[in-house]
Amino acid sequence: GYWGFLLSRMGVDYVGFDLEESQEPFRDGVDDDCLERTWCKIHKGGPEVLTGTKYQNHTLMLCYPDDFENSEESLALQCLDNYQGDTIIHIGEIFGNTILDNPFGKSSDPNFQVSLAASFHKVLQIPLPSWPTSVDTLTVWKRTEYTDVDDILFKNIPEGENIELVMCCPDT
Predict the structure, then answer these.
(1) Angle CA 143–141–165, to nearest 5
(2) 38 near 52, Cβ under 8 Å?
(3) Is the pLDDT score of 32 beyond 60?
């Protein structure tokens, strides 16, 4: 709810869903029961709310979507399969940005990450403050259109949506 609270304060039309409905939001960010409350209204709902066109013009924001506490299924992958819109925000670890031996990190299922990269292209990646055991980033993804050339599909990414490929660590 905190991300939704911040976005709402900036004028974003935020509609939040989780498998559990939130309690009454608390005010002013200070409350003795803050661990029992949320920052903004979160509606009860899962990936099924994304079917159809109701949220087609909304951005899908997934913040550490796969904890596998309630199910062995990937919530992120189910959301991706149902989402009809064009923009996804992923918050957490993503392929290659982790200190775990698993290159996909601990935020979202590897199958989700592969499907995301196949259907969308990354247009923004920024580091976030993280615990010492995490490498969290905020990434923004746009739906990719494909062009068929001689029965081979190529991504058709607009020129202004290409991320620079040059990366270099400070000690190089």
Answers:
(1) 110
(2) no
(3) no
Which of 20, 166, 84 lies closest to 1 in space, CA to CA? 20
* % of the chain residues with pLDDT over 70: 88
What pLDDT, in 10s, does the model give residues 49-65?
999 889 999 999 999 88
Give the whole-angstrom CA distance, residue 38 versus residue 23.
6
Contact 134, 91 (CB under 8 A): no
Task: Please tell me whether residue 60 adopts helix, strand or coil conformation.
Answer: strand
Q: How many helices (H) and strands (E) does the chain have?
A: 3, 8
Report the alpha-carbon distance of residue 93 to residue 98 in Å, rounded.
Answer: 6
How far out from the chain centre does Cα 69 lie?
18
| Angstrom distance (rounded) from CA 152 to CA 137 | 33
Beta-bridged to residue 144, according to DSSP, are none
Average pLDDT of the residues in 74-92: 94
Specify the pTM: 0.83
Q: Yes or no: say if 56 and 85 are a contact pair by the CB < 8 Å rule.
A: yes
